[in-house]
Structure formats: structure tokens, C-alpha cells
């Protein structure tokens, strides 16, 4: 099972390298405000 | 003939359980912060009040009758409810009770269980945040604690409880606390109805920092919740402690990853919610599995709870703060995962699970899940119906628009 755990964790870590760093090239100020435009956990997921 | 000596108090166990009790007590106000940050600023005080008031309310209920109904001698032998032997803590003293915890004062076991009883109805409040009338909430909490929590605690943990006798495993309250509250939250959300403007206007969390603070305090307190459920300062507590932290961490990572893939950004709110989902899922398994299982339990918890939050949006049910998605779904996954990953190799008092060839344990876990979910759903519906006969469940439209802080409590949260 330790092999499964290692694969799952490392796959997740490696995936981060290929995921976008930000949704759009925005300024730091705008980026910080984007995070609070999510409403609830629901909207954070569904937006 | 020699007599069995009476159980003796162990100072190490007692010290750990005193600390654990304080840790779990902290979780209820922490939940207030977690929920409080997620609502709009006009409802933050009322949301925090739900948790804080529940802590006080259930503390008294538990001393007066809740503990007796949950843990005293079974009535009728059916394993459904305890009696009145320990009403108002009659016969509950400092001498240990060997049936539950033989090395700590019985009073300490009682107050440790009190902190669990207190947080459970508080968890439900996230479903009806921003619209439930305070008086209705109070009445609901009294009835729910008495007629849902205490019987369920008896089923699972009480001597003679039928789920306990069945052999289903629940180390720290996955069934009693999380599945029951998650299902009750779903019923509340459906019966009470959506917030005005739900789906039409943004209902933004007014303070994500408050929510993350709450999540951090919940994580901290959860060490008392799970490692404290060992009821002693020993190997089992250490195992539960490690599993708790591992699953929370892994679920935070997997929820963030899922959100990152879907939304293209790693969400702070997702990290907080993911950690809570992992904590929920590892709760029933904490003392029965090893750390490798905790990694997998946490990983799956983060994913399935994230998906559950998404599905809830499709169903258009306004469980305002996603109690069902996190506690209901996370709790169900945790209960079933316990049946999969449990092994006597780490806890001889537990059972072997699916990974060691015992499929029957999964069946027992499913029975416990279905029983707890059905009982909670039906009883919650009945309680809401009864409360509605006495007082309206919702505030009126004008009060909802103005906000519950000023209309229900006469106090704005911020003077800005």
C-alpha cells in the first residue's frame, strides 16, 4: 500500500507543476480581490 | 477467593483527557469562526452565535439529561436509548466507570462526551445560516440534541447499544457526529428553503481569513477529538493523532488540486475546507488504521467532498455552508473506509477489514451508516415540523434582507 500512497502523492505534486499559476495575467491587487469574489464553498467550486 | 480490585485512576490518562476535553471544547467556537467567515457581513454575529450558544445550551442539557439518555443503562434491552439512572449526574462521580473508561474519573468521561454533544448540533447550523429565526434554532437544538444525538450516541457507544453490539466501528464519532449532522443539515436546507436571492446574486464570504483561522483551530482541536477518543495517554492516542494529521493534510492537498484543475487556481478556501473534510473522514477510522490508510482516506475525502459541493449546486439545495457535502459525504466515506482499511494489526480491539479479507466489516459499516442517516433524516424532519407549529422557522423577508445580526440580536458585527 505504501507504493500506492507514494504514487498518489507524487502524481499530485507533479501535476502542480503543469497547472496554471494564475487564471489570467492580472496585477497582484486584482488577484488578491479575485479570491474573495467567491461566495460560499459552493460558489468557490462552481464559479 | 480474591475480589477484582476497583478500577484505579491513572494520572497520565486523566491529564490527557482533561486536555483533550479542552481541545474539543475549542472546536465549537472555532466552528463559529469557520462558518462566520463564510457568510455575508450582515449575518456574521448570528452565525457565530449559533455555535457559541449551542455550546452553552447543550452543556446544560448534557448534564441534566443528555448524558444519562446516551450512556446510562439500556432501557428494555433493545439498545435504543439509555435510562434516567444518571439524570442530573446522579451517581456520576469521580470514581472511574470501567464500562467506558476505567482509568479516568467518570465525571471526566462525561464532560469529554459533552464536548462532542455540543459541537454536533452546531455543525447543522451551517445549513440554515442567514435565514433561520433564532428562537426556532434554540428550540430545534434542544429537541435535536435530546431526540437524535443522545439516542444515536447510545446506539454506537452506549453499553448495550445495538450498533455497538453489531460490531460496526466508529472510533471518534463519524456516525454519531458527522453523518447525523450532515444528513440533518440536508433536511434542514430542504425544509427551510433557499436564502432570498440564492442563485441570482453573489453571496460572498465576508472574511476568508476568519474561515481559515476557524479551520486551523478545528484542526488543532481535532487532536482532542480523535486522539482523545483513545481515552488514555498511550499508543492508541499516538496512532489516532498521527492519522488525524495525515488525513487532514492529504485532504487539503487533494481538494486544492481538484480545485486547481477545475478552476485553474489553488483556492485558500479549498485548503481550509479540504482539511476539514479529511478530519471528518478520518474520525471513525483514526484508531483502527495505519498512516498509509490515513493518506488514502484523506486523499479520497478531499476529492469526493469537492465533487459533493459541486453536485449540490446542480441540485439547487441551499445548504448554505456545505454541511452535507463536507460532514455528510465525508462522514459516510470515512465510515465505509473504516470497514475497508481497519486491521487488528494496529488495534487488536478493532477488527480486520476488507484489505485483510473481511468483507463483512464493510457490511456492518454500511448498516450503521444507513441506520444513522435514516434516523437523523426522519427525526430532523419531525422536529422541524414540531418547531414550526410553535414558531416560524425563518425570519421574514424584511429581516432577512436587513440581516440577522441586527434583527435577531440587535448588534452589528463591525462599526466601520
Key words describing this protein structure:
heterodimer; A: mainly alpha; flat; B: 416 residues; mainly alpha; 14 helices
Descriptive account of the structure:
The complex is a heterodimer of chains A (47) and B (416). Chain A is mostly helical. The longest helix of chain A has 17 residues, at 2-18. Chain A has helices spanning 2-18, 28-34, 41-46. Mean pLDDT of chain A is 69; it is low at 26-39. Chain A contains three helices and no strands. Chain B has helices at 11-38, 44-71, 106-124, 134-157, 162-166, 174-192, 208-226, 235-263, 268-282, 291-315, 323-341, 359-390, 397-402, 404-409. The radius of gyration of chain B is 21 Å and the shape is globular. Chain B has 416 residues and is mainly α.
Give the averaged pLDDT of chain B, no decimals: 95
Percent range for β-strand residues of chain A: under 5%
Please write the string of helix (H) and strand (E) elements of chain B.
HHHHHHHHHHHHHH
The biggest beta sheet of chain B is recorded as: none
Number of separate helices of chain A: 3
Categorize the overall geometry of chain B: globular
Which secondary-structure class do the elements of chain B indicate? mainly alpha
Which value, in Å, is the CA radius of gyration of chain B?
Answer: 21 Å
Total strand segments of chain B? 0
Largest interface: A-B, 27 and 39 residues
Protein topology:
The complex is a heterodimer of chains A (47) and B (416).
Chain A: H1 2-18, H2 28-34, H3 41-46
Chain B: H1 11-38, H2 44-71, H3 106-124, H4 134-157, H5 162-166, H6 174-192, H7 208-226, H8 235-263, H9 268-282, H10 291-315, H11 323-341, H12 359-390, H13 397-402, H14 404-409
Amino acid at each position: 500500500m505504501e507504493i500506492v500512497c507514494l504514487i498518489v502523492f507524487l502524481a499530485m505534486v507533479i501535476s502542480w507543476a503543469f497547472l496554471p499559476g494564475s487564471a489570467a495575467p492580472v496585477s497582484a491587487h486584482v488577484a488578491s480581490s479575485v479570491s474573495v469574489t467567491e461566495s460560499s464553498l459552493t460558489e468557490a467550486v462552481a464559479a | 477467593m480474591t475480589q477484582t480490585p476497583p478500577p484505579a485512576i491513572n494520572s497520565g490518562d486523566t491529564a490527557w483527557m482533561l486536555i483533550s476535553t479542552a481541545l474539543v471544547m475549542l472546536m465549537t467556537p472555532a466552528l463559529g469562526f469557520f462558518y462566520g467567515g463564510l457568510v455575508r457581513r450582515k449575518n456574521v454575529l448570528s452565525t457565530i452565535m449559533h455555535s457559541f450558544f449551542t455550546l452553552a445550551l447543550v452543556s446544560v442539557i448534557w448534564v441534566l439529561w443528555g448524558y444519562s439518555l446516551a450512556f446510562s443503562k439500556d432501557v428494555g434491552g433493545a439498545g435504543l436509548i439509555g435510562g434516567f439512572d444518571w439524570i442530573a449526574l446522579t451517581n456520576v462521580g469521580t470514581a472511574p466507570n470501567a464500562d467506558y473508561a476505567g482509568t479516568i474519573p467518570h465525571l471526566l468521561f462525561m464532560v469529554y462526551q459533552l464536548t462532542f454533544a455540543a459541537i454536533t448540533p452546531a455543525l447543522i447550523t451551517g445549513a440554515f445560516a442567514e435565514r433561520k429565526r433564532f428562537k426556532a434554532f434554540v428550540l430545534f437544538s434542544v429537541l435535536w440534541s435530546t431526540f437524535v444525538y443522545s439516542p444515536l450516541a447510545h446506539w454506537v457507544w452506549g453499553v448495550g447499544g445495538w450498533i455497538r453490539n453489531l460490531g460496526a466501528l466508529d472510533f471518534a464519532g463519524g456516525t454519531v457526529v458527522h453523518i447525523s449532522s450532515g444528513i440533518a443539515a440536508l433536511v434542514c436546507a430542504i425544509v427551510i428553503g433557499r436564502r432570498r436571492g440564492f442563485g441570482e446574486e453573489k453571496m460572498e464570504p465576508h472574511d476568508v481569513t476568519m474561515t481559515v483561522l476557524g479551520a486551523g483551530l478545528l484542526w488543532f482541536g481535532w487532536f482532542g477529538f480523535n486522539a482523545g477518543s483513545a481515552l488514555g495517554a498511550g499508543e492508541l492516542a499516538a496512532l489516532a493523532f498521527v492519522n488525524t494529521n495525515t488525513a487532514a493534510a492529504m485532504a487539503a492537498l487533494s481538494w486544492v488540486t481538484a480545485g486547481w484543475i477545475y478552476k485553474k487556481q489553488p483556492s485558500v478556501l479549498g485548503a481550509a475546507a479540504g482539511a476539514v473534510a479529511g478530519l471528518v473522514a478520518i474520525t471513525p477510522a483514526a484508531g483502527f488504521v495505519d498512516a498509509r490508510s490515513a493518506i488514502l482516506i484523506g486523499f479520497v475525502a478531499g476529492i469526493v467532498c469537492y465533487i459533493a459541493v459541486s453536485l449540490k449546486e446542480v441540485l439547487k439545495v441551499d445548504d448554505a455552508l456545505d454541511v452535507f457535502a463536507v460532514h455528510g459525504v465525508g462522514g459516510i466515506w470515512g465510515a465505509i473506509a473504516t470497514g475497508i482499511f481497519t486491521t487488528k494489526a494496529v488495534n487488536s480491539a478493532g477488527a480486520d477489514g476488507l484489505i485483510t479479507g473481511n468483507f463483512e466489516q464493510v457490511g456492518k459499516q454500511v448498516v450503521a451508516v444507513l441506520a444513522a442517516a435514516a434516523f437523523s433524516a426522519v427525526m430532523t424532519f419531525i422536529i422541524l415540523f414540531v418547531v414550526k407549529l410553535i414558531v416560524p422557522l425563518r425570519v421574514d423577508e424584511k429581516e432577512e434582507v436587513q440581516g440577522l445580526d441586527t434583527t435577531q440580536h440587535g448588534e452589528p458585527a463591525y462599526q466601520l
